[in-house]
Specification:
Elements lengths: L8 H45 L5 H34 L2
Helix pairs in contact: 1-2
Length: 94
């Protein structure tokens, strides 16, 4: 390997910062998609509330739906954050 083939520390750090920006952008996009999904789910939830008001479903069913929605939301937000954190650590390792 010649000196021309080697990458300087400064170039390596610049490359790492670019990669981290890409991951940051991907993370934001994933969160935006999750937010969009949740908006659709909220519309479904509102419909279920209307059914509850009309007596078509029970209050227990409604609470169960709300809990499941929150669990799914928490699960996917955690997955996004964990994946991005792991990749950031991996990128910063020499």
């Amino acid at each position: 390997m010649t000196d021309r083939d080697r990458i300087s520390t400064r170039q390596l750090n610049r490359l790492r910062r670019r990669i981290l920006r890409v991951y940051g952008t991907a993370r934001r996009e994933m969160q935006d998609q999750l937010t969009e999904f949740l908006a659709k789910y909220k519309a479904l939830d509102e419909r279920k509330r209307a059914q509850l008001a009309a007596g078509e479903i029970t209050e227990d069913d409604q609470k169960k739906l709300e809990e499941e929605t929150q669990k799914l939301t928490d699960k996917y937000v955690k997955m996004i954050d964990d994946t991005c954190a792991d990749k950031n650590k991996e990128i910063m390792e020499v």
